[in-house]
Structures
1.
Amino acid sequence: MAMAERTALRERVLPVVAVLACVLLLWYGGAVGLNRAGAVERVLANSHPNGYSSADLITTTLNMERPVLPAPHQVVTDLYASLVDWPLDSPRNLLYHVAVTAQSTLVGFVLGTLLGIVLAAAIVHSRTLDRALLPWIVASQTVPVLAIAPIVLVILGSLGFSGVAPKATIAMYLCFFPVTVAMVQGLRAPQRIETELMHTYAASRLQAFWLLRLPSALPFLFPSLRVAIAAGVVGAMVAELPTGAQAGLGARLLTGSYYGNTVGIWSALVMSALLGLGLTAAVAGIERLVLRSRGAR
Amino acid sequence: MRRGGGVGRLWPTLIVAGLAAVALAWAVPAAGTVDAPPRGLVAGLLAVLLLAGASVRQVAALDGRRWYGSATAALFGLWIVYFWQVGVTLFDVPRVLLPAPSFIGQMLLDRWDILAGDFVQTVLKAVLIGWALGSGLGFVVGVAIDRAPFLQRGLLPLASLTSTVPLVAVAPIMVMWFGFDWPSKAAVVVLMTFFPMLVATLAGLQSAGKLERELMHSYAAGYARTLLDLRLPMAMPFLFSALKVNATLALIGAIVAEFFGSPTVGLGFRISTEAARMNMALVWGAIVVAAVTGSLAYAVLVQLERKVAFWHPSIRSR
């Protein structure tokens, strides 16, 4: 057991750690290289008028106020300061913005998933919908549907909706497409012999759906949910851009770029990456729980 | 359970539905000329709606030819556009909420020079260059680390994780680094398209079976020969699916990156500024351009795949 764990560590974890270390090194190197010109011009020319050592140069480039590329420790310090120094409901605390974005993502994700499952069930049972609607849903995957986000915002805004609703709507329709396509596939996954068995049990359509089709669709549903939640995060963040929203990771990115606050942009970027990873991990965790409770190995 | 029959039995429904639709469209007054929609016309709209539903049902019930499926979808799409047009005119929906399709079409014609400029800026510069660079880079890196299992095991988990990260959020940073013009958008696209291609290349190179590899080995074929003659051809379906996914991702990336700041041209710029000015017809026009571009790119890639990987079982079975 210990042996197996050790090889697993060497086979899986070590390479990832090595690559991450390389990325970190490259990042520091890039920070020195990219910030060099600014550091020489704006800081070192004043503080060291008589020439500077390379150690001076490196420490200056890694601790600039408005760097071209902030060093990793600057981002970490900024994140830590924002998380610890401010109360949770303060707009200075990044967790507040994470919560705002996560809220609209999750509302949209739940609604989009339900809508997708219902529509997929309808498509599987109706030949008309299957032939008339499904091709359009599949084709919409090749189209940048995110581009209609500003339209949705304007329409919902002029109808008097504000706050979570418009953002959740955009997250919803982004989540809905992959779920529908995958669920149609999944609900059709049962073999003929299985549907015929249900038929010999005199199972009604509802029973066949509940006992056969839905369980066999689960392995198709969960991968699409992971795609959907990632798309939902992007949708919620993009929805925060044109509204002049004050809160949310997207708004945070935009204000950061207005004021040239590079470190702030990077912190928001790291937080949105963590949000995406966290939500996907949560979906994967639910997937494991559900599949295990259904007796899958 | 097979319903329907020949195409001939369809004509009555189709003709009646079509005539009713034309009559209704002719009877609907121009938007803004009457205060409330006349009752009779609303009833007429419901009647055409029922007829349309019946016609789609009947076409959907047809069996036998492959094109019946696409015909159903096309008919359904036509009806949607028709009811969009008639509904918007009849109920006098404000243009800010939903412009009529005819108005959007008019806008496409009137402002095609603006939209053509946006197309050149966003699609031909940012998307095409970014997509080619990102996919090319992903492919080259994938082939390069093919002989380094250690690097593969390190990069693959991280590359797969990037699909859960909102990469498009790097747009403000790229704008800072590369300026407002298309290079910053292309950089976002490169970042978004690189990882899917890397993952697909690595998976595709692994997809050649043991039997085929041993055959190559027994021919005394070296690494390069095996790569060129066996493993790269076997990887083609993987590469093409990554190219297709990347085409959509690249369009999304370039358009969304323009929301963060751009010169006064580009599809994303057009969408965000005209939406802020409530000129929704032009926004819809830009979206039509983006949608047509996305579908065309996909269609071209599918055709290319058929040419390149015509021998592959996944193509031949279609």
Note: Chain B touches chain A through 67 residues (CB under 8 Å).
2.
Amino acid sequence: MSAALATSELGKRYRRKWALSGCTLEIPAGRVAGLVGPNGAGKTTLLHLAVGLIEPSAGSIAVLGEEVAGTPAQLARVGFVAQETTLYASLSVADHLRLGAALNPRWDTDLANVRVARLGLDRAQRAGTLSGGQRAQLALTLAIAKRPDVLVLDEPVASLDPLARREFLQGLMEFTAEHTVTVVLSSHVVADLERVCDYVILLAQGRVQLRGDVDELLSTHRRLSGPRRDAARLPASQEVIEESHTDRQSTLLVRTEEPVIDPSWSVEEVSLEDVVLAYMGRPEVEEGLAGINR
Amino acid sequence: MIEFHLDSRSGVSPYMQVVQQVRHALRLGLLREGDQLPTVKDVVARLAINPNTVLKAYRELEHAGLVAARPGVGTFVTGSSLADPAISAHGPLRRELRGWIVKARHAGLDEESIEALFRDAVRSARIEGVA
């Protein structure tokens, strides 16, 4: 399957500081990809590069096999919901829909109307007086009624309360179920993405630390706990990602392709959050983070 | 029609939870031959989960011969192969287990210890190839 988004040694420098560097990745078409990482990891920079709001300082990025924002046709195929859901405060809901219809060649009027009706939005109400959840839903409506092939969302649920967060993700997932689309969304809260993403990219200190199919990551990582043991004495097939020891007990998070059969270990499955946090806690990543904060 | 629910603290992946809930419903006779599973769109809109998760779960159930997809119509239960032998054994096994739990309580074990012991026994039986 072809890549919806592909970067090679992509970098972005602001003055002397690299916000993103040596970033090489591919997001397969048709996936819902979660971009995770701590604040300041370069997530927003990468997404802004993907939608053409900024230009790379190094390397290259292609969306749907083409140069980003190279042509109007390419722009029409990419939808974007910015972190501060960008709406016009003094324009009404209906104004926004008219604007969307006028500006987007592939505008889906039915989809927009059905969504607005179902969300119970008052078409005459000004965007500035909508609740946070309603604003996010309107911004999502505008982005998906554009009928994009790639939909990019920057921290879409960060500012929403739990109920609005769930409703937003329900709307987003319903859209992906009905249309062929690649979604890339960022969040610094992994738990928000656990259910909706089938692909994950961990960005830290401006670099990709981990990426892959979520099911594959979950099936190849295990937490082992048992009597204290030196991690160096594990089978070669088990790569230790995270370890902690007390004087009697060892707890390890390992990556392994094979089942763990050693009966002295208690073996547990891990969540996506466990895996991501383990990789974020690796010494080389933490040292790098400390370097950035200095 | 069954409704799926997800336990985010169970440590079991959402896809596996969907598979297990269908198998569980078949085993208990809550789903029977000819019953339709919820559409992917319905599950996704209800649980706010990735459509591929539901598709993968349904595919696995199809491979296991428990359901069949009719393109454009939906996914239907094909057989209740899970129900028959298992369910008749449930009653006696449950009674024996109850007796065992009473014994464990008399021995001073609390619920957590009982569960830990049970899980450990299942695990070691698996390793020894008994179950």
Note: Residues 84-127 of chain B form one domain.
